[in-house]
Every structure is written in structure tokens, then in C-alpha cells.
């Protein structure tokens, strides 16, 4: 898989390779089981049931790094953060920020387009209980690193959604940019900010999970503040 990721010459090539990955037996079994049994509300739909590629423009200045696709979201629709409550919150915020052409993301063919932004996940398959193992994270890392390498010429800031994504960024920083992560590494928190001299800035944001948005731990205003800061750091009007 490392070699397949390295051979990808552009994002279209990479996305195709990602969607054809079978490297983690537990994740393959789970994503296919979910696609076979389906949730009652989506019983008449054909699930994607494969790894979910990144989504957005090739000249992105802002990267949004998530944890993994949702079992009945991206694993169903084939597009990251599409078809679930987390995506509802995220894309509404991106639309308010002028980074998405519409506030909803319900299907891969719904006309959604991003501006100056690309979204990707640390792990590309839906994991049981939304909890990939460290070994699965590390196995999937070459996809993330190659994606970042392909958008490196324009990428100026990465928004890490949650502590898992925040932790996944540091090995990527080392492998793609040749920058040694700071020691001790900055702690994750909402609004946390790290900047280096030869790499994109990193912003922390609470994950757009229902656990955070339904309880008020993450509010629309808090998301708006993060994306306003990301636009400022990236030089996006």
C-alpha cells in the first residue's frame, strides 16, 4: 500500500487507489457488513462500503482533517462527511464561511463544491464504534501523507477535527515536510494553534460529532471562529 500511495500522480489517481484498498481486515469486514445489513432508514439504498477518498479542490489552501468516515454517512454515500449529522454541521459552517457553495451534503451527486478547501480523514474506512486502532491508523497513514504531498504547493493551514486528527498530523508533518514535530507536542484543544516556518499552520477544533454539537460543547459560533481564523492564516478572502 505504501508503494501504491507513492505512485499516485494526482488526486484523481490517489482517490481511485484509496477506494480500492483492502489493507486492514477488521475495517474491511466492518465496512462491508454495514453495507450489507444497512440501517433501516437507508434500506433501499446501495451503500458505498469502501474506503472514502478525500473531497475538495486540488489547489486547496485549507485542509480539514477528520478521524474516519461514518458507518452510515461516508461509508454509505462514498463522500466524506456526507449523509450524516456531523456533515450537516460541518458543511453548514463551511457555507457560512464562503468555502462551500451550499450548506448541505447529502449525496455524492448533490452538486456540492468547495472553495480553497479539501477534506480528508486520518483513516479512510469506517471503524467499529468510530474507534480505529493505532495499527489501523498507521497502516492508513500513507494515503494521508500522499494527499498532503499532492496539495503541498498551496496548503497553508490544516484544521484538525478532534484529538485523533491532531495526533495524526505530526507524523505527516515529519514525513511530508521534513519538519521535526515540536517536543513536547502541543496539546489538542478547541482553538489550539501551532505554526512552523516551513509547514502549514495547525488549528484544533472539537470534532463535529453529535456528542459535541448536541451537548453544546461545540456551537456554530465556535466553528465560525475556527474557519475565520483558518481563512486568515491561509490568505483566503
Automatic annotation (TrEMBL):
Keywords: 4Fe-4S, DNA damage, DNA repair, Hydrolase, Iron, Iron-sulfur, Metal-binding. Residues 53-227 form the Uracil-DNA glycosylase-like domain. GO terms for molecular function: 4 iron, 4 sulfur cluster binding; DNA-deoxyinosine glycosylase activity; metal ion binding; uracil DNA N-glycosylase activity. GO terms for biological process: base-excision repair. It holds the Pfam family UDG. InterPro entries: UDG_Type-4/5, UdgB-like, Uracil-DNA_glycosylase-like, Uracil-DNA_glycosylase-like_sf. It comes from the Bacteria. Belongs to the uracil-DNA glycosylase (UDG) superfamily. Type 5 (UDGb) family. PANTHER family: TYPE-5 URACIL-DNA GLYCOSYLASE (PTHR33693). This is Type-5 uracil-DNA glycosylase. It comes from Micromonospora carbonacea.
Amino acid at each position: 500500500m505504501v508503494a501504491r500511495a507513492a505512485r499516485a500522480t494526482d488526486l484523481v489517481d490517489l482517490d481511485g487507489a484509496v477506494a480500492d484498498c483492502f489493507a486492514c481486515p477488521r475495517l474491511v469486514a466492518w465496512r462491508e457488513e454495514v453495507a450489507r445489513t444497512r440501517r433501516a432508514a437507508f434500506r433501499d439504498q446501495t451503500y458505498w462500503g469502501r474506503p472514502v477518498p478525500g473531497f475538495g479542490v486540488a489547489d486547496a489552501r485549507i485542509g480539514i482533517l477528520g478521524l474516519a468516515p461514518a458507518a452510515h454517512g461516508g461509508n454509505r454515500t462514498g463522500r466524506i462527511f456526507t449523509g450524516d449529522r456531523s456533515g450537516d454541521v460541518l458543511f453548514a459552517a463551511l457555507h457560512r464561511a464562503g468555502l462551500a457553495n451550499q450548506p448541505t451534503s447529502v449525496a455524492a451527486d448533490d452538486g456540492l463544491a468547495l472553495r480553497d478547501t479539501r477534506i480528508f480523514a486520518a483513516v479512510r474506512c469506517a471503524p467499529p464504534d468510530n474507534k480505529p486502532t493505532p495499527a489501523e491508523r498507521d497502516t492508513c497513514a500513507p494515503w494521508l501523507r500522499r494527499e498532503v504531498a499532492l496539495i503541498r504547493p498551496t496548503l497553508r493551514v490544516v484544521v484538525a477535527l478532534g484529538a485523533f486528527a491532531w495526533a495524526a498530523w505530526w507524523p505527516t508533518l515529519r514525513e511530508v515536510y521534513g519538519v521535526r514535530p515540536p517536543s513536547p507536542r502541543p496539546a489538542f484543544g478547541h482553538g489550539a494553534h501551532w505554526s512552523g516556518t516551513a509547514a502549514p499552520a495547525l488549528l484544533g477544533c472539537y470534532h463535529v460529532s453529535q456528542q459535541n454539537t448536541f451537548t453544546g460543547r461545540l456551537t456554530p459560533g465556535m466553528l465560525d471562529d475556527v474557519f475565520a481564523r483558518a481563512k486568515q492564516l491561509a490568505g483566503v478572502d
